[in-house]
Amino acid sequence: MDPLLLVLIVAGVSAAFCWITSLLTNETSWIDRLWSIVPVVYVWIFAGAALLAGLDATRLLVMAVLVTAWGVRLTFNFARKGGYTGMEDYRWAILRGRMTRWQFQVFNLLFIVLFQSALLVLISLPAYIAWQHPTPFTGWDAAFALLFAAFLVGETVADQQQWNFHRAKKAAGGTLEPGFVTTGLFAYSRHPNFFFEQAQWWAFYALGAVALVADGGGWLNWTIAGPALLTVLFIGSTVFTESISAAKYPAYRQYQRSTSMLVPLPRRGRRAPETA
Question: What single-letter DSSP state applies at residue 180?
Answer without folding.
Answer: S
